[in-house]
Amino acid sequence: MDACSIAVVGATGAVGRVFLDILEERNFPAKDIRLCASKRSVGKKLKVKGQEIAVEEATPELFSQVDVVFISASGDVSRALAPVAVQQGAFVIDDSSVFRMDTDVALVVPEVNASDLESHLLKGHRAIVSIPNCSTTPLVMVLKPLMDVNPVVRVIVDTYQSVSGTGAAAIEELRMQSEQVLEGSSVKPSAYPHQIAFNTLPHIEPFLENGYTNEEMKMVNETRKILHDSSLAVSATCVRVPVMVGHSEAIHIEFAGPISPADVREILSSFPGISVLDDPGANVYPMPVDAAGKDDVFVGRIRQDVSHPNGIAMWVVSDNLRKGAATNAIQIAEEVLRRDLLKSAVR
């Protein structure tokens, strides 16, 4: 892959810091790296690939000097900066939800639908690629290889999402609240509407008129778009749990025809990016503490759904900061370079 110059917007955030680590781990071919964050972080130095790089303010001039811009900040930041970066000739990979459902923007998990990069970028669509919500990615990773063998009719997914999905402030709040509760002190929530330490909140993002939350409907709509199946029946319940890193999901899948747990294990075991850990009798199953710091989606507790003859139930865990965000973004960039699409993306 040819080397490219990159800018990372949100470099000091929870995902941004992991992103910089993964750049080095994967030896991404970056010939020049620019780090951007809010004004209060300008001038701060971060170590990347052995060198100290000062944080800058994201400006049109800076964007004109790079090939690829990774944005992992708030939706407002993406909405404001992504079009500017494109206007300056950069290719944008965005971590927010702002552009995910835009028909001119590809929503990509490389193992699942990398071909969408070509179908969008070569046809003159916007030079922006979105990565899915961190709870959507592991779901489509599991569904794709299975539905290629046996059509999926319906999916019910319940998520157990770590506080790092909210950001660095939520991580610190869980630490602080845990200490306060153990010491018998009072707790004052800030990042969440209620105490998160030693508690679970069936509430991620605002509630909508249909009774679902915005997070839950993201999973519904993003899954359909990535899998190219607008009629796929999906229902989600998203829960915040007192875990630092790692999202877990209980997934129930109804297929068009019968399928055995053994077949599911074999299919998933051969799919890139998935690791099957499934020996409940020996207490072997995926857990957030095992998935943290790793890029694979881990699957276990694969069993026949006793409520439906064509149903399979399973337990899935992944690192939401890595495969749920930073790793996926870097994999997209690698795929764009591998397919020689960068020149087609920027015009």
Folded structure, characterized:
The chain is an alpha/beta fold. It folds into two domains: 4-132 and 325-345, NAD(P)-binding Rossmann-like Domain (Rossmann fold, 3-Layer(aba) Sandwich); 136-162 and 200-320, Dihydrodipicolinate Reductase, domain 2, CATH 3.30.360. 33% of the residues lie in helices and 24% in strands. The chain contains twelve helices and 14 strands. The chain has helices spanning 14-25, 60-63, 75-87, 110-113, 115-121, 136-147, 168-183, 214-226, 261-269, 288-291, 322-338, 342-345, and strands at 4-9, 30-36, 45-48, 51-56, 68-71, 91-94, 106-107, 128-130, 152-161, 233-240, 247-255, 274-276, 297-304, 311-318. It has an eight-stranded mixed β-sheet with strand order 3-4-2-1-5-6-8-7, with helices on both faces. The protein has a six-stranded mixed β-sheet with strand order 10-9-11-14-13-12. Helix 1 (14-25) packs across helix 11 (322-338). The radius of gyration is 20 Å and the shape is globular. The two termini are 20 Å apart.
- How big a fraction of the residues is strand? 15-25%
Name the quaternary structure. single chain
SS summary, helix count: 12
- Number of structurally distinct domains: 2
Number of strands: 14
Please state how the strands of the largest beta sheet are arranged side by side.
3-4-2-1-5-6-8-7
At CATH's second level, what is the architecture of the largest domain? Answer: 3-Layer(aba) Sandwich
> CATH homologous superfamily of the largest domain - what is it?
NAD(P)-binding Rossmann-like Domain
Span from first to last CA?
A: 20 Å
The geometry reads as: globular
Helix content: 25-40%
- Radius of gyration of CA atoms, rounded to a whole number: 20 Å
CATH topology of the largest domain: Rossmann fold
Averaged pLDDT: 95
Note poorly predicted spans. Answer: none
- Report the CATH C-level class of the largest domain: Alpha Beta
Main structural class: alpha/beta
H/E series, N to C? EHEEEHEHEEHHEHEHHEEHEHEEHH
